[in-house]
Recover the amino acids of this structure.
C-alpha cells in the first residue's frame, strides 16, 4: 500500500479487511436490490453503472413521479418493513395510474441510520413483490447513511398525447371514484390505535375478517394501474385521492375550472368501513388520504364505456356526482347543497 | 362545513385559516420550485399534476440516475443551502456525464423538519441556477416533513446504443481523467477544518485565491456534461470519480475485466492542490471523492480525438495510465509497480 488514504468515515477499511464485517454499500445493493422487480427487455443497462439506460418505444411519452415515505409522517417505527416497501411502490404507481401510464422503471433512494439486514430484506421483498406484479424493474438507486427516508422515482409510458390530466374536466361531466376511499384511514386507525387517527365507534364490534381487510388496505394497498390504462381516451380528467377525496377532487375541479358536486348517497362505502365507522362517522374518513384510488371525470355519454373499463379491470367504480359551473367542492346531502371545505393531508400547513 | 374532518396532523387547518400562517406544501412548491431550471419544449406537463409527461425523441434512450444529500454524510448544518442545492444537481449531472447523456429533466424529493423559507429560497436558487445552466427542467417532486434529506432523480437522453458504460475497456486502452481530482477534498478540509478531512500541511501558506478556488471546487463543483457528450463513440468506457479516483477506477477496470496501471507522474495536480497538500500528501486526496470528474478508457488510436474533444469542451484532461491484463489498480511509481488498495467512500463499510 503506497500511501495511507484518509478514510471518508472513521474506521473505514479496505475490502480485504471487510470480510465478515458489516457489508458495504455495494454489497448491500447486490444482496437486496439488484434484479428486484420485473425483468424487462427494455432495460439496456440496469443497476451497476453510473446510470440506467432505458428504451422508450417510439411514439410514446415518458411519465415520471416521485414519492417519499418518512417515519412519523407516513409510517411508524413498528410498521412492517415489507408494508413500507409495498406502500412506497403503491404511492408512485397510483400517481402513474392517474395519468393512464403503464409503469416501467423505478429508482430508489434509501437513507438508513445503519445496516439492519432483516429490515432491509423485508423492505426489499415488499418493494420487489409489488414492483414485479406491476411489471416494474428497479433500475437504479442510492443508499446513504442518515435518518430513515425512502424515496422512489417511478417512470412509465403512455402513447403520445394520451396521458390523463387533471385539467380536462368540463361542466356536466360525471365524477367517478374507484374502490372505497376511507378504508386506508380506518385501517391505519385500527393498526395504530394510539394515534387516534379516526373515530371508529364500531371498531370493537368488528369481526376479524373485516378488521384484517381494513388493515390490509392501509398496509398493502392496491394501485389502479389497469383501470388508469383502460381510461385513456375515456376520462376527461383524472387524479388519485392519496391526499384525501375532498382535497384531491378539489384539485381536479380547480384545474378543470369547475366545481365538484358530490352526492352523499352515491359515495361508496364498504360494509367493513360502515361497520367500523358507524353511519355518522365514515364520511370523515374520506379526508384521511393514503387511499390509492382514482377519481375521474368523464362525459355522461362515456358512462357505459367507463363502467365496462371498470368491469374489465375488476375495479369497483362508483359514480359520485358531477362537475358543474363554479368553484370548490359541494356536497348534496338530503336535497341541500353545502359548500364543502376540509383539509386533506398537507405536510406543512398549520 | 358538513363534518369535522380528522386532521392528518395535529393542528392542521383549512385553507381559509391558513392565510398568513405557515405556507402549505402546495404553496411552497409554487413559491420555490415551479418553473425551476430550464424551460424545455419537450415537457408536455410539468409540476402540478400527478406526474410529469415528457417527450423522448424517437431513436433515443433514456438515461436515469438518482443521488441524495444527507446532513453529516454529505454536508454540514452550516453549509450554504445554495451550495447544497448546487451539489445535489452536480452529483446527478456527473452520473449522466459518465454515460455520455444530455441531461433533461429532474424530480426532487425534499424532506425538511419545518418551513425555513430563507433556507428553501437559497437551496432552490442553487439547484435552479445549475439546472438552468445545464438545460435541466425541474418537472416534479415531493415535499415532506422529517429529518433533512434531499434526493434528486435526473433523466437524460442519448442516441440509441451510444451510452458510455463502465465495461467496454480493453487491455491497452489509455486511461484519462478530467480536471484535478482531490481538489474537492482539499476544499472540504479548508471549509470545515474541524472535520480533519485531510492533511493539508500547506493550508496556512495558501493565498486567498488558491483557498477560494479549492473551497469552490467543494461547494460549487462543475459537472463534465459537455465532455461526456463529446466522448460518445470515442471512449471505450467511462465512470465518474465521485467516490474517489482509486475506487471508481477500480470499478471501471473490474467491469472491463482488466487491471488499471496508473503512472504517478502523469496524475494531474493543480498548483493550488500541490500548494495546499505539499508534495507528499496530495496523492491521498485522490481518494477523497466528491470530485465530479470523469475517468475514461480509450484505444490509443483515439488519443488525438480525445484530446480534441477535451479542447472543444474546455475541459482539462490528462492521460494517467492504461488498462492492462490482470485485476485491481496498480501504481507505477519511480519505475516500480505497486498493487494499490485503498478505500474510497462507502456509507456502510466498516
Amino acid at each position: 500500500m503506497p500511501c495511507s488514504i484518509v478514510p471518508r468515515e472513521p474506521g473505514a477499511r479496505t475490502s480485504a479487511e471487510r470480510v465478515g464485517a458489516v457489508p458495504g454499500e455495494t454489497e448491500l445493493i447486490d444482496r437486496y436490490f439488484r434484479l428486484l422487480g420485473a425483468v424487462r427487455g427494455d432495460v439496456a443497462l440496469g443497476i451497476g453503472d453510473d446510470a440506467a439506460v432505458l428504451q422508450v418505444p417510439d411514439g410514446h411519452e415518458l411519465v415520471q413521479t416521485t414519492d417519499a415515505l418518512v417515519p412519523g409522517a407516513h409510517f411508524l417505527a413498528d410498521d412492517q418493513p415489507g408494508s413500507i416497501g409495498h406502500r412506497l411502490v403503491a404511492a408512485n404507481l397510483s400517481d402513474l395510474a392517474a395519468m393512464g401510464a403503464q409503469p416501467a422503471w423505478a429508482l430508489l433512494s434509501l437513507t438508513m441510520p445503519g445496516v439492519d439486514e432483516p429490515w432491509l430484506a423485508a423492505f426489499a421483498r415488499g418493494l420487489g413483490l409489488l414492483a414485479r406484479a406491476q411489471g416494474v424493474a428497479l433500475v437504479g438507486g442510492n443508499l446513504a447513511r442518515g435518518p430513515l427516508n425512502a424515496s422512489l422515482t417511478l417512470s412509465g409510458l403512455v402513447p403520445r398525447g394520451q396521458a390523463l390530466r387533471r385539467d380536462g374536466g368540463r361542466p356536466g361531466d360525471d365524477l367517478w371514484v374507484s374502490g372505497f376511499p376511507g378504508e386506508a384511514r380506518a385501517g391505519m386507525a385500527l393498526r395504530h390505535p394510539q394515534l387516534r387517527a379516526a373515530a371508529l365507534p364500531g371498531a370493537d364490534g368488528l369481526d376479524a375478517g373485516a378488521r384484517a381487510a381494513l388493515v390490509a388496505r392501509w398496509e398493502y394497498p392496491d394501485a389502479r394501474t389497469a383501470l388508469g390504462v383502460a381510461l385513456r381516451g375515456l376520462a376527461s380528467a383524472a387524479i388519485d385521492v392519496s391526499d384525501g377525496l375532498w382535497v384531491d377532487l378539489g384539485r381536479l375541479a380547480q384545474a378543470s375550472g369547475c366545481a365538484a358536486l358530490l352526492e352523499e348517497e352515491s359515495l361508496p362505502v364498504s360494509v367493513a368501513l360502515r361497520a367500523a365507522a358507524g353511519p355518522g362517522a365514515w364520511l370523515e374518513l374520506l379526508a384521511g388520504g393514503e387511499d390509492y384510488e382514482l377519481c375521474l371525470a368523464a362525459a355522461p355519454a362515456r358512462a357505459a364505456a367507463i363502467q365496462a373499463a371498470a368491469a374489465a379491470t375488476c375495479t369497483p367504480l362508483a359514480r359520485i356526482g358531477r362537475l358543474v359551473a363554479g368553484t370548490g367542492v359541494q356536497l348534496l346531502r338530503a336535497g341541500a347543497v353545502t359548500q364543502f371545505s376540509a383539509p386533506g393531508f398537507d405536510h406543512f400547513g398549520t
